Amino acid sequence: MEFILNSIRRIDNDQVKEHAFGTEESLEEKLAICFINPKDFEKLNLVSSLHLKISNKEKHVIVKVEKDDNIPEGMVLMPVSIWSNRLSVVQNNDLLYKNIIVNMEATREPIMKFKEIIQELLVNK
Question: Model pTM?
Answer without folding.
Answer: 0.87
